[in-house]
Every structure is written in C-alpha cells, then in structure tokens.
Amino acid sequence: MTRAAAFAAALAAILGTGGCARSVFPPGGPVDATAPRVFATSPADSSVRVSRNVVVELLFSEGMDHASVRDATRIRPPVERPQFRWSGRRFRVSWAEPLKPNTTYHVVIRGSARDSHGMAMGAPASIHFATGDSLAPGRITGVLRAITLKRDGVPILVFPGSYGSRPDTAAEFEPLYEAATDTAGVYMVTGVVVGQEYRVFAFYDRNANDSFDAELDVLAPYPQPIRLTPDRTVADSINIVAVDPRAPATLSGTIAATDSTARYRVEARGIPDSTVTRRVERNGPGPFTLRVPAGTWTLRAMRLTGPEGKPAALEVRSGEVLELSPEEERRGFLFDFQPLEGPRTQPPPPGGGGH
C-alpha cells in the first residue's frame, strides 16, 4: 500500500469513529474545554526521500478556525508563496515551486491555532521531513528562563549567525528553524544543518503580526552564536534568559517603628527628575513592597502627620542611589523610626495604678 493510500485509510477510520462518538449539544450547552490537536500527518514526521512536490496534510481532531490555523502556520526554511487549502478537518499545505533538493523542512502549527469554538491548541504541532536521503543531523536544546514573562508555548527562532544579536527589520525577520517551549520552558530544535553558525532567540510576539516591533515585542537572545559541525551535531544547554524591558523593578523592606497607630509612606524619587515619584503607604510598622520603572532612584520613608498635627511628621532617607534594571529585585531596606519616635508612652492601668 502506498503512503498516500495508507494515510487515506487512516483518515477514513479516524473520521468514521470521530463522527459517531461526537455528541452535539444545543445552544447554551456545555462549553468546549478540550483543546484541538493534530491526529495524523502526511508525510509522517521524520520522513525522508519526500517528493519535492509533496502536499503536506494535517488532520485535526475537530473543526478549526481556518484563519487562525493559516496565521499560525510556519514553514522552515521559508518557501515562496505557500498555499493553504481545507477539506473538512484536513489542512493542506503546498507551494508554488518545488522544494529544494536534499533539504530538511519543518512545518509548524503554533499553539495559537483555534478550533471553531475559539479554543486554542496551546501546544504547537510540527513535523519535519527531508527531500534527501536523511534528515539534517543538527540539534539545539535548552531552557527558557523568565520571571514576569511566560515560559510555555514561546516560539524559539533560529537565524543565520550573520544576523548578529538582533535581527530588527521586517525583511530580515525570517528564521531558518522554529520550535516552541513546553510547560517547563524546555525546547528542542531538530533537523538543523551542520557546518553553519546560528543565533537563537525566544520571541514574544505581543501583537501577533510575526514581525519584531521594538516598542512592543520582546526578542530574548542567547548571547553567543552557535556553530554545529559534523563532530558536534548537538548544542545543548543553550539556555535563554528573557527579561521584559518594560517590567518594573521591585523594592522591598521593613518599616520599624514604635507607633503602631501612625501611617507611613515609602517613596521613590527619580533622578534627575525628582518630580517623578512612586509610593506605597501602610498603617503602622511592617513590611512594604514598591514597584518602580527601570532607572535611577532614591528612596525615603515618612511618618505622615496625623489629625491636628499629631503625631508630627518624621522622615528617614536611605541615602543610596539606586540604579535599577527591569525585573530587578532589591530586598532588605530598613527604615527605622524608633530612635526618632522614642519609647512609646503606655496609658496608666485601670484604677489609677495606686497601691
């Protein structure tokens, strides 16, 4: 049986069983909470000697939103004028010109693809195949680490090493390979050609336009280029640290005081513009957390004046100039008002305290 015939037989079986098992709920019935997935592909993943005129077919588990699947589809290395067609739940990808000989290709459906009810896949689906006798042997693996940015389902893009540390034009923004991180931030790019130098990035495409917009998106690089050779086909521990350049820094510490009824304020003032401030208030002594944009700041704490001017205002300054980066955390600040406030006066006990 030919590969095409085998795929058709498998497809008919899946469609037949899937059609009988599906329950149809009336409007207002249960919400679709099952993410769609890819049931079968042709060619199968890791196939070799694939025709340069192949039409890639992917069978989804349910009806899909066609536009979202099209927008989520990537072909690496890029091809000219890809064409997309549907037949029920079958998604077909073809191209105007034959594929290159002796080349490993990747077809990726990003996790943003949605079913007809709006439920996203979440986890991407991909296949890779070769038009030659073998798949390219190179592999790049690593972990994406992040604090405020997400770690799962993030596209990992591999560019030629000649692009430098930041490919920043729309014309250049066409990677050779692509993968995505799992729920632990782990990724693996397979089928990479050896004998070349590469740059690896995690890409946060916040407006989903598949182009890097410096004012909005985050493109987190692995700091050095990677070179795969016939003697070193695997580059592991290519770990990427993703920092949101627009995320605030976090300052935390403690106010020590004897007056538990007073109100206290911690305030950061910008340098050189001291009119730019960030503040947080609390009743009585205790811990505080203050978030400020990246930049240069000074920090102070104040006991605020109470009704009728009592208690009087007090101020304690840290005296330190803080150079803060996005997502940076500084802990351990202590503003001690106790020497200024003096011992707390205790009210006399009931009955006047006589003998």
Structure characterization notes:
This protein has 355 residues and is mostly beta strands. It has three domains: 1-11 and 35-132, Immunoglobulin-like (Sandwich); 136-244, Immunoglobulins (Immunoglobulin-like), CATH 2.60.40; 249-341, Carboxypeptidase-like, regulatory domain (Immunoglobulin-like, Sandwich), CATH 2.60.40.1120. Helix content is 8%, strand content 40%. The chain is built from three helices and 23 strands. The strands form six sheets. Strands 9, 10, 12, 13 and 14 form a five-stranded antiparallel sheet that branches. A four-stranded antiparallel sheet has the order 1-2-5-4, covered by helices on one side. Strand 4 (82-87) and strand 5 (90-95) form a beta hairpin. The chain is elongated, with a radius of gyration of 30 Å. The N and C termini lie far apart (109 Å). The relative contact order is 0.10. The model is unreliable at 12-26 (pLDDT under 50).
